[in-house]
Design a protein that fits this description.
about 100 residues
Length: about 100
């Protein structure tokens, strides 16, 4: 008698090659560094733009009302993302090094 599963091909489980601990740590550090730089840049530049916008007076002739405020906040988010990506390393890299001294 032929069993119904005898004609199915057997597939060996892929072998997992253990990553070197240093490679895994390096990958985690790179991801952590990227997220840290983005957080610091976003926080710093986001607060800077927010306080800058708060000091501006609204011009009665050219102010677009609530819709301008909504689109202005969306523009500010894009500006913050670009500022954080382009120049946050100079600000956040020393902070990152100080923070990771105790992690090592």
């Amino acid at each position: 008698m032929i069993s119904p599963t005898s004609s199915l091909p057997t597939v060996a489980a892929p072998e997992k090659t253990p990553e070197a601990p240093d490679a895994a740590k390096s990958k985690n550090d790179d991801e952590f560094r990227k997220v840290f730089h983005q957080f610091v840049g976003t926080t710093l530049y986001g607060q800077m733009l927010k306080s800058m916008r708060a000091t501006q007076e609204k011009n009665p002739y050219f102010h677009g009302g609530k819709s301008e405020e909504i689109f202005q906040s969306m523009l500010d988010e894009k500006l913050v993302d670009q500022l954080a990506e382009s120049s946050s390393r100079t600000v956040s890299e020393p902070m990152f090094k100080l923070m990771t001294i105790n992690r090592s």
